[in-house]
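$ run holo --ligand "F0G" --emit tokens
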Amino acid sequence: MRPGAGSPDPPKRRSWAEPFRIKVVEPVHVPTADQRRHAIEKAGYNTFLLRSEDVYIDLLTDSGTSAMSDSQWAGMMLGDEAYAGSRNFFHLEDAVHKYYGYRFVVPTHQGRGAENLLSKILIQPGDVVPGNMYFTTTRLHQELAGGRFVDVIVDEAHDPASTHPFKGNVDLDKLEATIRHYGAQRIPYVCIAGTVNMAGGQPISLANLQAVRAVTQAHGIRLILDATRLAENAFFIQHREERYQHYSIAAIVREMCALSDGCTMSAKKDSLANIGGFLAVNDENVFEEARNLVVVYEGLHTYGGMAGRDMEAVARGIGESMQDEHIRARVGQVLYLGQKLIDWGVPVVQPVGGHGVFLDARAFLPHVPQQQYPAQTLAAALYLDSGVRTMERGAVSAGRNRDTGAEYLPKLELVRITIPRRVYTQAHMDVVAESVYFVHEKREEIRGLRMTYEPRYLRFFQARFEPL
Ligand code: F0G
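-- output --
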């Protein structure tokens, strides 16, 4: 029972709350059951194709959907929209130097812009890039540059029920075997993500990252971080790795970056901005190449596809993202939702991750075979129940093998309930948990989907389905 609802029990612990108060609100509309049915049909049962105005609580993604602070909004008014040498670029550069510690920064419009530059610069046709599970855009850029991704994450990452505290860790034997098999000269870099998105927002430990660094250094292979959710990863290190319990989030992030040669970054996540990203590296030659190429794909090297005001919002957001109280409330809200669902017997990926709660769609809908897209089906069912929008992260997202054309059928068939930062309240989380609970209660009535339209690249964004 919630405090204030007549609970007879005195509290056993002290609660904490978000380290902010709300100054501006954005009204949302609750669509009726009829409107929801009409909207999801029109969207081909793909939550990506819903109109935002047909959504009640939007948990599609935490990307670019977070609430900016008053300081970030004030910074927007200080945008220096000069084509070259905007002062906001130098603020961004300063923030990256201070918090991530890399020597050189190239701004990009978002994370995939940085992935494109990095892949084009470092990958030769026939190369392989080992990583702790794939991410959709990261892998595609590696492939478009002629490379191939090799998954070296620990086996526990593929098991939704495993409660391993660091399911984002690299299996060092797999990494060594990959290096032996292909040879270090075919491996331009190892790509390591903080809180692995596709595994359910699972962290890598600092001890494991140090071990990966030792292996890659011994073979002269670069280590590149996907720093998109590194601050959130740092929270789990602070709480689960005893050695670092007295380190600040900012100090842990610096430690992680110091073990790498550079990073790609989507500033739309950790950094609390609506758009933006960067590539940061220590190697001056790679920087020179990136500074040349960014002009072709993004814009001049002092804006890279962002307006000056956006660079200011990112620069200020980086500092806010490293504050311990912010991260505790951010991840704490995700854990609150996850714990509720666990307590109610709903199958979710455990431990609960940093940016969302991931439903295990195979366990949720055991009667729907993976070829009928149980996660896609479940995301549509949740929307129909309550107007809550979530995202498929299973067979549809995994796509097809580029050589054989066969569909990948990943072990993880998940629905991601992704929480934007600083946007929704605990009451919203209760509404979401209750919707998941009621859909779970009537799960046996739910039938699978058939794909009626399949785009060639990143099909999950625009594919269409119909019920079987
Ligand atoms: N890396 C990770 C781990 C991501 O989660 C994303 C984006 C990117 C790179 C690409 O960044 O979108 O700025 O181009 N993830 C979004 C999501 C799309 O919903 O998880 P981007």
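-- notes --
The mean pLDDT is 96.
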